[in-house]
Specification:
CATH architecture of the largest domain in chain A: 3-Layer(aba) Sandwich
Order of helices and strands of chain A: HHEHHHEHEHEHEHEEEEEHHEEHEEEH
CATH topology of the largest domain in chain A: Aspartate Aminotransferase, domain 2
Number of helices of chain A: 13
Shape of chain B: globular
Distance between the termini of chain A: 71 Å
Largest sheet of chain B: 7 strands, mixed
CATH superfamily of the largest domain in chain A: Type I PLP-dependent aspartate aminotransferase-like (Major domain)
Number of domains of chain A: 2
Shape of chain A: globular
Number of strands of chain B: 13
Strand order of the largest sheet of chain A: 2-8-7-6-5-3-4
Mean pLDDT of chain A: 95
CATH superfamily of the largest domain in chain B: Type I PLP-dependent aspartate aminotransferase-like (Major domain)
Structural class of chain B: alpha/beta
CATH architecture of the largest domain in chain B: 3-Layer(aba) Sandwich
Helix content of chain A: 25-40%
Radius of gyration of chain A: 25 Å
Helix content of chain B: 25-40%
Order of helices and strands of chain B: HHHHEHEHEHEHEEEEEHEEHHEEHHH
Low-confidence stretches of chain A: none
Number of domains of chain B: 3
Mean pLDDT of chain B: 95
Radius of gyration of chain B: 25 Å
CATH class of the largest domain in chain B: Alpha Beta
Distance between the termini of chain B: 16 Å
Oligomer: heterodimer
């Protein structure tokens, strides 16, 4: 090969690089491992993590994933394919994405869906930018604090330098939801949109119809933040209020994606037809080929960075193709009835869990609002100690809320999906009862710790 | 097209994969919250779904089935072991909000990855948070902004971007509230230093640069460029899209860069997955470390932990709900451990060898190179402007004809400076036999441009569909079924 090039050595090929820049010292990179050694190392580390019985949701949910989902999604033809810019050589991925768009538009009750964004949180940031583009002069967003705290933080990071203000609204602490009367009387100028989560971060159901109508009367768009599994049971955002939500986003992970310590997941985004040209990310369209046969292609690319550069709707140039592949196969295997079963079973399990936990003296709900598959409970012992003690029993008890809501230092957000068994919930209740009762009989001041 | 999955659906058909339907009352939820009409999801058997998506997959090109000489995208082989280990149940089932004490094994891998990336980038600190290259760019420019803001230096309102840059660069600068000024490229392929000098000043917040550049050459003036930007008070941003060309040979930190993003789906071989997920960790020098996005992974009291805003008060903030594309980071770490210290420079060497071999052989086949006098890096550009003026065949036509010959098309019409161009990057994982097969196909098509241009202009002929009507797709939007 060097002879064909006319070079004496591989080093000659780097001759244009100034010699003082060559630096092959990689002290911090360990020597290479062969496949057997790697497998041993990773199995050992995975074992160290063990497997806990998980009762956290908070934006990522552990559901049953049918065996076929990842066996098909990791076929090399999906796993190692590039972005489908060469449509003729990518009809498989493109048709799958078109099917995905159809499924998501139907689940959310909207006209169109894009081919996905990075995750739920960044999808909210993109929805905010989109709403501001669509509303032209308005540049403020009403952001209730029942929206996932991380979603609010990510949105602030991403839109903060673009002259957009997020107006934070505190929830009604008696009910754990947005106060729609307070929303109706909110006097704010230049608002582009209201963000409505359903279910909200606490698991509670917001008064979506009233809130949607209030927003629309004020001339605001409605950005819905929803859980896709819940949509098999709950009213789709397209039917909220009199006119429905305008933009719908959410975390796609519950649709067949493993938790994997945080990613990769995918964000979904759907909207009304009239907003489609303001949408970020890839869109797949069906069209005809030279022979008049139908086929699929990327469309409305004139919105995107590789064409519009500094005038693009977003700098995004990837979607989460592999995760969407898995989610589409998941939805095909589940069908509507399968998704309904997951939604119902997760809802029923969380009710059972909450009943078992609140039967313990010293554990109670913070409000009696209707929830989907998550609920806030208050525990009258120091929460960190209780959570740690449960962890020692192999139970990840829930998400302590004090970090995000200072008034909720003793509150825990719990979730039981369809995967949790009666036995696991009994174990949780049993251990929690013993922790709480020990505290009752042996208060901290008397303890030798 | 194949029938859609919806067209294979039959009412009431189910499969065994989901739960058996049990109690479905949800009687505590008021009907006003509930769904009326069911969603349009397929009702198919498990076998129907598996066969449908397997058949769809077979209509794709992929690295596992075809050569992908796609410039600036680094389509190298994705080792199978990376996926197998990242999907181990104990790793795949861990909740991201579970206490870090339940994830010490996972966090050990992440911490090692941070250290490895720091070393290859020549940077002081790394954050694994960004979920794609474009988000890494956004992070980098936002940190530059935070740095200037913290110094009260608010006159810096401009980011300089070479005209050959990726489209994400100017789009990112605008997202961070900056104006963009383009710097022209010298005819030798390097940044035009005189134009840079004229553009730079107290309004300059920074310069975004890819080196080796998107023109497939190493910018020889990099040390001078870095000196000019720093002397003017600006910072240097390294777009890591082309890091594969110099992995283990040159460290961006040594070139004078203050911040870098790495595309793990390129250099560290994580899957492209038909368009994602990506992963774009950022590395920084000392000045920008306080601004790195959260969460960051640290070792405290012999335990790995995640640092959040409380511990990193100057951080530009959070970019994802949890921990970036954690499972992709895991695959990149496995790849890096497999390569090891001795394997990294070999990546750059073989990628560069393969590119220079292709360039030399295609030059011998009368293809015109954009920069014939320059060494190729891991990629190079050829232009088909002569073929177009002789025969009317465009780079697009030529690319489509390559599909018929069983090769994915190179990147076409990018960078925008070179007319009718192909940006060709073979990567280090292609064999000599595969490179030769591509050369043969290129030569055959070139001859065909002159002997039978219509066949090339109407290509592809062997794919599942012929060339698609993009104008119709945009005018008569059909984004969901049924219309």
């Amino acid at each position: 090969m060097l002879a064909a090039i006319g070079a004496d050595s591989i080093d000659d090929l780097f001759e244009e690089i100034p010699a003082d820049l060559i630096n092959t010292n990689l002290d911090q990179v360990p020597p290479g491992l062969d496949e057997m050694e790697l497998r041993r190392l990773v199995h050992q580390r995975a074992r160290a993590d063990g497997q806990y019985i998980n009762f956290i949701g908070a934006g990522a949910y552990e559901h049953h994933i049918p065996a076929a989902v990842w066996q098909v999604a990791t076929r090399g033809e999906f796993y190692s394919a590039y972005t489908p810019y060469q449509a003729e050589a990518s009809q498989g991925t493109l048709q799958l994405l078109y099917e995905y768009q159809t499924m998501m538009a139907s689940l959310t009750g909207m006209d169109v869906s894009n081919a996905s964004l990075y995750d739920g949180a960044s999808a909210l940031a993109e929805a905010v930018l989109m709403a501001v583009r669509a509303q032209r002069k308005a540049s403020r967003i009403v952001m209730p604090d029942t929206v996932h705290p991380a979603y609010r933080a990510v949105t602030q990071t991403i839109v903060g330098d673009q002259g957009i203000e997020l107006i934070s609204i505190e929830h009604d602490t008696d009910r754990g939801v947005i106060d729609s009367d307070a929303m109706a009387s909110l006097d704010a100028e230049d608002v582009a949109a209201l963000v409505i989560p359903q279910p909200n971060f606490f698991g509670n159901l917001e008064d979506i119809d009233a809130l949607t109508n209030i927003a629309h009367e004020k001339g605001w768009l409605v950005i819905a933040v929803v859980n896709p599994i819940s949509l098999a049971m709950l009213k789709p955002p397209g039917e909220w209020g009199d006119a429905g939500a305008d933009i719908v986003i959410g975390e796609g992970q519950p649709l067949g994606i493993p938790l994997s310590s945080g990613g990769p997941y995918f964000g979904f985004m759907c909207c009304r037809q009239k907003l489609v040209r303001q949408m970020p990310g890839r869109l797949i369209g069906r069209t005809l080929d030279m022979d008049g046969k139908p086929g699929f292609t990327l469309t409305l690319q004139a919105r995107e960075q590789h064409i519009r550069r500094s005038k693009a709707t977003s700098n995004i140039c990837t979607n989460q193709g592999l995760m969407v592949t898995a989610a589409t196969i998941y939805m095909s295997l589940m069908g509507n009835s399968g998704l309904q079963t997951v939604a119902n079973a997760s809802h029923a399990n969380t009710r059972i869990l909450v009943d078992k936990l609140t039967a313990i003296d010293g554990v109670e709900r913070v409000n009696d609002s209707t929830f989907f598959h998550e609920c806030v409970i208050r525990i009258n012992v120091p929460l960190d100690d209780a959570v740690r003690a449960l962890e020692a029993q192999g139970i990840v008890a829930g998400l302590p809320l004090g970090k995000y809501y200072p008034a909720m230092q003793d509150c825990l957000l719990v979730c039981a999906t369809e995967l949790r068994t009666e036995q696991e919930m009994d174990d949780y209740a049993l251990h929690l009862e013993s922790i709480v009762s020990k505290r009752r009989l042996d208060p901290p001041s008397a303890q030798k710790m | 097209m194949s029938n859609l999955i919806f067209e294979k659906s039959s009412p009431g058909r189910r499969n065994a994969a989901p739960l058996h339907p049990g109690e479905t009352a949800a009687d505590d939820i008021n009907d006003r919250f509930k769904r009326g009409t069911p969603a349009l999801l397929p009702e198919v058997s498990e076998m129907q779904a598996v066969r449908h998506y397997t058949q769809l997959s077979q209509k794709n090109f992929s690295i596992d089935t075809h050569f992908y000489p796609l410039g600036s995208c680094t389509m190298k082989y994705n080792p199978r072991i990376c996926n197998e280990l990242a999907m181990l149940p104990a790793l795949a089932s861990r909740h991201p909000a579970a206490p870090s004490t339940t994830g010490q094994g996972f966090l050990a891998c992440m911490h090692e990855l941070q250290e490895i990336l720091k070393d290859v980038a020549g940077m002081k600190a790394v954050s694994l948070a960004p979920m794609a290259g474009a988000q890494g760019e956004f992070t980098g420019i936002k940190m530059i902004r935070a740095y200037h803001d913290a110094r009260g230096d608010d006159a810096r309102q401009e980011i300089l971007v070479p005209d050959a840059a990726h489209g994400t660069n100017p789009a990112t600068a605008v997202m961070c509230g900056y104006k963009v000024r383009e710097i022209p490229t010298h005819e030798n392929g390097d940044v035009d230093i005189d134009a840079l000098k004229a553009a730079i000043g107290p309004q300059t917040a920074g310069l975004m640069l890819t080196n080796p550049s998107t023109l497939g050459v190493f910018d020889r003036g990099i040390t001078e460029i870095a000196g000019l930007v720093h002397a003017a008070g600006g910072l240097l941003y390294y777009d890591g899209a082309n890091l594969n060309a110099i992995l283990g040979k040159v460290k961006p930190g040594d070139m004078g860069f203050d911040v870098i993003h790495l595309n793990l789906h390129k250099t560290f071989s994580t899957p492209h997955g038909g368009g994602g997920p990506g992963s774009g960790p950022v590395g920084v020098g000392e000045r920008l470390e306080p601004y790195l996005p959260v969460p960051r992974i640290a070792m405290q009291n012999d335990e790995y932990c995640l640092l959040d805003m409380d511990e990193c008060p100057h951080s530009i903030g959070r970019l994802s709900a949890f921990m970036g594309n954690a499972g992709i980071l895991l695959r990149a770490w496995i790849y890096a451990r497999q390569l090891g210290r001795e394997g990294m420079p070999r990546v750059a060497e073989y990628a560069t060898l393969n590119a220079n071999y292709l360039k030399a052989r295609l030059e011998q086949g009368d293809f015109e190179m954009a920069y014939p006098e320059r060494r190729a890096t891991h990629e190079f550009i050829l232009t088909l402007k002569q073929e177009k003026s002789d025969t009317g065949v465009t780079a697009m036509d030529f690319a489509k004809r390559l599909l018929d010959k069983g090769h994915h098309a190179p990147t076409t019409y990018f960078p925008l400076l070179i007319p009718e161009c192909f940006l060709i990057e073979p990567t280090e994982t292609e064999s000599l036999e595969d490179l030769d097969s591509f050369i043969t196909a290129m030569n055959e098509i070139r001859l065909e441009c002159y002997s039978d241009p219509d066949t090339v202009k109407t290509a592809p002929h062997q794919m599942p569909v012929r060339r698609l009507d993009d104008v119709r797709a945009a005018r008569k939007l059909d984004l969901i079924w049924p219309e």
